[in-house]
Design brief:
Helices cover 5% and strands 34% of the residues. A hairpin with a 2-residue loop joins strand 17 (153-156) and strand 18 (159-162). The chain has 225 residues and is mainly beta. It has helices at residues 7-10, 35-42; strands spanning 51-53, 58-61, 65-66, 71-72, 76-78, 83-84, 89-90, 94-96, 101-104, 107-109, 111-113, 118-121, 124-126, 129-130, 135-136, 141-142, 153-156, 159-162, 170-172, 177-178, 183-184, 188-190, 195-196, 201-202, 205-206, 210-214, 217-220. It contains two helices and 27 strands. The longest helix has 8 residues, at 35-42.
């Protein structure tokens, strides 16, 4: 087991309505095939005082702000005080966390967005998990399918971890900042508190509290008092 890639070292589960989906799992990507079923299980249990049902398997918090031009497809949960902006395209199997932002013309599918995470401008988030207060700059995307359609693997010092997933975008840890127009290649994992420079092409693992400048150049952050 690679400790840097475990759920507890990447994500604060107290910051998502989907915490129970991670029960019994080691790595966060193991939750990706379970999202749709999980939503359909907990959706009917959500309080009608707080949530309203907007179509088949779609539950939206009454305090959420949904633009009239946004497209919502289930299974889907949108938590309290979330904002879904103009022309957002949510294709289903998605959990949108409390206080998070799904921005204009952003596409989202089979993903978990933790509380206060933001994908506010022209982003594509597919088969991915974004941690608490993670932020993707304008045009940054997760690429979720390899060009040869083979299974996604993650390079580690011991070799490679086979995720057994054909579609897997990225795991973006809590408090991560991803610069504008960056591409996170299939199976990218970015550790807590790291920053990715704009226009980056990211592949593999970015350690926590790091600055990703370009392939092969990752600096450790200097944490100021």
């Amino acid at each position: 087991m690679n400790e840097d890639l475990t759920i507890e070292n990447l994500l604060d589960l107290s910051k998502t309505i989907a915490a129970k989906i991670f029960d019994g799992l080691t790595y966060p990507w193991e939750a990706l095939p379970k999202i749709s079923e999980f939503i359909m299980q907990i959706g009917p249990t959500l309080s009608p005082d707080e949530y309203e049902q907007r179509g088949e398997n779609i539950w939206v918090a009454k305090s959420a702000k949904i633009a009239p031009t946004a497209y919502l497809s289930g299974p889907l949960i949108i938590a309290p005080n979330a904002e879904v902006r103009h022309c957002a395209f949510i294709r289903g199997s998605a959990v949108v966390g409390a206080g998070s932002v799904i921005g204009n013309s952003t596409e989202l599918k089979n993903s978990i967005i933790f509380q206060n995470a933001q994908v506010p401008h022209y982003n594509y988030i597919g088969d991915s998990i974004l941690g608490y207060k993670a932020h993707l700059g304008a045009g940054a995307i997760t690429s979720n399918l390899k060009s040869d359609k083979s299974m996604v693997t993650i390079p580690v010092p011991e070799g490679r971890i086979d995720t057994e997933l054909k579609k897997f975008g990225a795991i973006v840890g809590d408090h991560v900042e991803v610069g504008c127009n960056s591409v996170l290649n299939p199976g990218t994992v970015i550790g807590r508190g790291s920053t990715v420079y704009p226009l980056s092409m990211v592949r593999g693992i970015v350690p926590p509290n790091s600055i990703y400048k370009k392939q092969g150049e990752i600096a450790e952050k200097i944490l100021r008092q």
